What does this fold into?
Amino acid sequence: MKNDPLKKRDPNLLLQSAPLLRQELTTPAAMKEVWIALLPATAAALWFFGLSALLILITSISGALLTEWVFTDKQKRRFALSDTSAGLTGLLIGLTLPPGLPLWMAFLGGSVSIGLGKVIWGGLGTNIFNPALLGRAFLLGTFPIAMTTWGAAGGPGEFFQLHSSNLALPFMQAQVDSMSAATPLGLMKFEQQGTALWSLFMGNTAGSIGETSALFLLLGGVYLLLRRSIDWRIPTAIFLTAAVFSFIMFLTDGDKYPSPLFTLFSGGLLLGAFFMATDPVTSPLTPKGCWIFGIGVGFLVVLIRLFGGLPEGMLYAILLMNAATPLIDRYTQPRIFGRQA
Amino acid sequence: MATDVSAYEEMIKGLWRDNPVFVQVLGMCPMLAVTNSAINAVVMGLATFFVLVTSSFLVSSFKQWIPKQVRISLYVIIIATFVTVVDYSLLAMLPAIHKELGAFIPLIVANCMILGRQEAFASKHGVKYAVMDAVGMSAGFMIALFSLGAVREILGVGALFGVDLFSANFEPWVIMILPPGGFLTLGLLLLFFNWFTERRRQFLIKVADVDKIAVGVKDNG
It folds into this structure.
């Protein structure tokens, strides 16, 4: 019965099992957008901090990947690693680290990000706090001195000038680095000294390797906004709130408090607003919730910077609002169509 | 009544199967508060050991005369007596550690693990079993305190019982000797304990299945 017409395949008939409609936006695709958006900031990091930045990024990413590999179920391993979210977390925490940090701490940071920030909650999509920021908070609490020793920014000519403190042996202290410098926020807070807006904009200042260059962060952020990968309400609310709040403070005492532009372009505000506060897992789902979330972050970051003990407040501002996210989601549920509010 | 279970069994259960910290999750206050160094943890463990064993002994000896209605307050009085003994002995013998443990020595009275053993075990069993149970439980408590204190001291200071384990260049993990380090370490230890117990259970089930299959094959053949 080889030529039975009933068993012949019709070339025009496509037989498929459900689901027949495919969603274009998959997790790997969403992650790819963020990778692309982080390219300029990463390039700026390499430009200003050279080989140190490269090594820190490599170690933090490998720490994150290795932890994901070790703690993921054997059968889900390939799937979990192929969505590149673990590597992205590693890159994000790497970008928030100071250039002179010993590499073993960067590795630990990456692995804590994934281990305590993600895997322990049940993997991708189930964590409460942004994994990269949780890893950074752990490092900041564990190694407060190493995490607040900043190296000055260089140029491409000094690419191979490695910070000697990078190469500290595991569990050992770093030698004191002669290249240390204060960040613009530190100068502002402790010495009432401003930094030229142009260098804040370009990124030629001391700071975490990925946070200094406002221009390149804005490039990545605008790309994400144009691709609609992130909710525009969150960064907008953060910028508006931070600008308005710091402008009010600037009006009360212009010598003591920085201008709103300084607030926006200094520290990790741009990096956090575009890439960390907008993390779809740890930010609210509803439009109204996004506004509340962004306003909360913007308010807290200026509050911590101006009145807290730390020069920079983006880390704790986002983590605090992450904690409030389930509550915000619960109270901003949209009205069901056809029902009274 | 557990008269058919050997006294040895009563003692050994507190070490692992019914460990007061890892399984029952009792006595969290001293667990988190005084384990920033191994020596503090061990001294606290010894103090708890003394209080638990002596009060279990007393409670189970007096159980016929303790009226049901006021039993909890009587247990507390008995426990408080021995806590006072421990408090003043430590003050006399180890004043430095007594100062470091501070309010947590008197607070042994409020350790729910101790009161729990009186209510759940000592008041229902004979003296021998009660003491054996108390020894096992407080040994299990001490193991838990020590493992937490050791991890925190090794990472937080780079030493164990005050002896440096690394060179002077060791970078201390500041968070470990602060309260967050206590929560983190306890959480991870509980995680590890549950993971290990679950693996062991799976393994035992597997072994039992294999035995069953083997028996089945023999029956069929």
Summary: Chain B touches chain A at residues 158, 166-167, 169-171, 173-176, 178, 180, 184, 191 (CB under 8 Å). Residues 80 and 109 of chain B are 6 Å apart (CA to CA). DSSP finds nine helices and two strands in chain B.
